[in-house]
Amino acid sequence: MNMPFLTQNAWLPAFFPLLAGTLIFILAAFQRKANQAAIGISITGVLLAFVASLGLLGARFADSGHALQGSLRWLTAGQTEIAMGWSVDNLTAMMLVVVTFISLLVQIYSAEYMSHEEGIPRYYGALSLFTFSMLLLVLADNLLVLYMGWELVGVCSYLLIGFFTFKPEAAAAAKKAFLVNRIGDFGFLLGILILFYMTGSLQFSVVTEAVAAGKLPGALLALAGILLFCGPIGKSAQFPLHVWLPDAMEGPTPVSALIHAATMVAAGVYMVAKLMPLFAQATSPLFGSFLVLDAIAWIGGITALLAAAIAVTQTDIKRVLAYSTVSQLGFMMMALGMYQATTEAGHLQIIPLGYTAGLFHLMTHAFFKAMLFLCSGSVIHAVHSNDMRVMGGLRKFLPVTALACLIGTASISGFPFLTAGFWSKDEILLAMWEAHSPLFGLAALAAVLTAFYMFRLYFMTFEGSYRGELAPEQIHDSGWLMKGPLVILAIPSLLAGFVGTPWTPPAFHIHSFLHFSPVGHEATGHAVATHTGLNPVVLGVSLFVFLVGLGLAWAMYGSDKPALAPQALAERFAPLHKASLNRFYFDELYLLFIRWVVMGFARISAFFDKYILDGLLVNGVGLFTIGSSETLKYLQSGRIAYYALSVVSILVVLLLAFLKLGFGKVGM
Amino acid sequence: MTFRFADKIVFGLLFAAGFLLLTSLVLFNFGTTLAFYLLSITLLASATGVVLLRDVIRSAFLLALSFLCVGGLYVTLHADFLAAAQILIYAGAVSILFVFGIMLIRNGGKNLQEYGADFRGLAGIFVFLGLFSLLAQTVWKGQWHLEGSTTPADLNTVAEIGKLFFNQYLIPFEIASVILLMALVGAIVIARKEVASENGQ
Amino acid sequence: MANEILNIGLKHYLLVAALLFSIGLFGLITSRNLIKVLMSIEFILNAANINFVAFSHYVTPHELTGQVFAIFVMTIAAAEAGVALAIALSIYKHFQSVDMDKIHLMKW
């Protein structure tokens, strides 16, 4: 590995998939059957990107000093210069590896999963372009390139969700995803514009320094902060813009694994982390003593609980996983919103507490959620249905898948000590405990629900007896192209947590690698020891949460004759159950809003345009002209004497007027 | 006051003026002042008569008289050639032309009730008064740069006019002759009996 | 005052011409007989002529440019009178009348 070359051209990981995607599209334009070639080119591209990312990660481990940077001048307008720049700090390096790794596995998986579908080159081309877009987003050193990548992942997501062109629901879901994202992006753009206007630059470093120097008044910074956060609300499917993610499950399962579990939705979390120096300086409250970071935490918390509450009643396996993703993203946002406020020299100083925890969970979640989605794909492939009510007892048919799913479920529910999910969730709870946050209870409740619905999913799918209609011979296991990635992903789902235990040496500890440094310093990684052992309260809560969730799920779904009948429970809490089943009526609310407010405005505008602008102004002018000319035509009587009279009389009047007004003094 | 009465007044004035003119010119030697006043009053009176009289043939004769007066005014302005031309052309040809025209029109429009106090008449009076007051004010209050001297009485106007015609104003002169030719041809074309088209094509 | 009246100057001629012009204009507007209208037009032209000659006499006594112009005007007026009467005869043939109020073909 030619390290100096790689470190100086840190944009390479993004370049390979771009090249691959472009080649695929060009190839597909000229050749009808390009499936094999498309798959090959795409996988090569992402493989090279993965290798390069590993190299960059190694470089960051070796020298955690200044971020690797470079830029290309792009636009100059007067004094302002906008560059396409890249910057690789520790956070970026981690994201690069995660994104390329999961993208690679998903592409391998898709080779078998999508083998019966049409339009493979389009699929792989879009996957490659998506990978490029995500890497561009992650590599960005200024807000503009970040926004570009942001929008591009949205576009690729649209293309991939709507991949099955014969399904109108897929097209509708793709549109919904894009539009809801757009709403968030609008706020994001406004925030970017405020920053640009006040600081004159879009580069992260320059902006943070300018803000630290006080170029932005406090209230404006708070406004910019909340506007900027609108982007992640859309992209990471937070409340209230979470409605697009469950519908996005209409797309192919590998796409869901890649985009809607591991990478694109994580872009929001990434962006909040990257802009944390900015948020940490937003010390002016939005109202009361509610800071921007509080808003982030509360929105994350509400999302976590809301999504978990919906997931417990869903019967579509992918939908459960989708709501689970939304909930876990809420957890991450909650973590990022945790801080400790001290008053130093008169003003408020904010020390973010959950920065590392949130990013740690991001990494582990990417691994096990992608694996869970791929497992569900395997199940769907075998049983040809998404509905968990017609599954059951599939463990004997799909042993590898079942094991992988069990590992993933354990991880997400927080199986103590052995799973990655436990350690990352523990970190989050620890951060919340240290911040004395009122959201701690809410997080614990959401965690209980998480464990419950995940184990519910596992039990309904793999345990008990088969409830479907297929004959046993028809249920076939997947090939190794599909099982391989599952197995590979199981490893980090178990082991990735070990970078964050109290017994990890500081050199390898995630807190050293990814910790928040206030403005003025880059994301360097000198050894910082922040843990002195396990916090017993938090540990107790985590264990309690896991056991309660597992226990409930076992009781209700563990065997064919459950100890606690789900039906009975549903009837006892009927209103809650009904609300949860209907996803708390968010979609209906939005539809109502569109019908009454948006269409109302549209109708008013249409009325105004049609009757006032068109009718009164345009047609009115025309009618006035016609009317006046119809009246004036009677002046032409045909009698010359009258014509002469009018000419002369007006001449006389004009002459008199001119003389009175002083035009033309005839020697007077 | 009807306009019939006005007829008589006007005629009376004209006769008186004419008489006075002739006698004064013969008997007295008051010079230009008297000539001017007599000529101008006659002129204006006959002009009024032309416009106001109901009988168009009487208007035609008064027209001829007014042309003669204008010729007289030219004489007082030492424009002798012009005076001769005026009498020849206007009083001699144009007036006859008008008389012929009236002759060719049956009834000559004799019985046309000219006007009552209708809109056009009143408007015309206002226009008349307005325009005249304007012009009069301009004339009377204007500072005309006069040289002080006037045309020498022994100036050979014909020769001088001839010199101007053939030196500076040669082209307008030629164009004027062309226009006359055009008018001649045009009048004939317009006024002749168009047999072909009257047969209903 | 008496001086003004007795000593004829440029202003007097111009005034006469103005009055003649106004009378001609009045006739032009109010006459109901087409021939009368043509006669009024001749008055207007004559008034202009008087102006020209008066100016020539008082303002440029040694150049007879004004008289030259007056001759041109006379020429044109004569030509115009001829053509106008021809047209009047044509109209009479068409409408059987020279009443201006009856000639309104070119109306709306």
UniProtKB/TrEMBL annotation, chain B:
GO CC terms of this entry: plasma membrane
Keyword entries, A-Z: Cell membrane, Membrane, NAD, Quinone, Transmembrane, Transmembrane helix, Ubiquinone
EC number: 7.1.1.-
Lineage of the species this protein comes from: Bacteria, Candidatus Blackallbacteria
Localization per record: Cell membrane
Family affiliation: Belongs to the complex I subunit 6 family.
Catalytic activity: a quinone + NADH + 5 H(+)(in) = a quinol + NAD(+) + 4 H(+)(out)
Name of the protein this chain belongs to: NADH-quinone oxidoreductase subunit J
TM regions (residue ranges): 9-28, 34-53, 60-77, 83-105, 117-140, 169-191
Family annotation (Pfam families): Oxidored_q3 (PF00499)
Function per UniProt: NDH-1 shuttles electrons from NADH, via FMN and iron-sulfur (Fe-S) centers, to quinones in the respiratory chain. Couples the redox reaction to proton translocation (for every two electrons transferred, four hydrogen ions are translocated across the cytoplasmic membrane), and thus conserves the redox energy in a proton gradient.
GO molecular function: NADH dehydrogenase (ubiquinone) activity; quinone binding
Membrane topology: Multi-pass membrane protein
Automatic annotation (TrEMBL), chain C:
Gene Ontology CC annotations of this record: NADH dehydrogenase complex; plasma membrane
EC number: 7.1.1.-
Residue ranges of the TM segments: 12-30, 68-92
Top-level taxon of the source organism: Bacteria
Any single biological process term in GO: ATP synthesis coupled electron transport
Catalytic activity: a quinone + NADH + 5 H(+)(in) = a quinol + NAD(+) + 4 H(+)(out)
Key word Transport present: yes
Main location: membrane
GO molecular function: NADH dehydrogenase (quinone) (non-electrogenic) activity; quinone binding
Membrane topology listed for this record: Multi-pass membrane protein
EC class (word): translocase
SUBUNIT field: NDH-1 is composed of 14 different subunits. Subunits NuoA, H, J, K, L, M, N constitute the membrane sector of the complex.
Name of the featured protein: NADH-quinone oxidoreductase subunit K
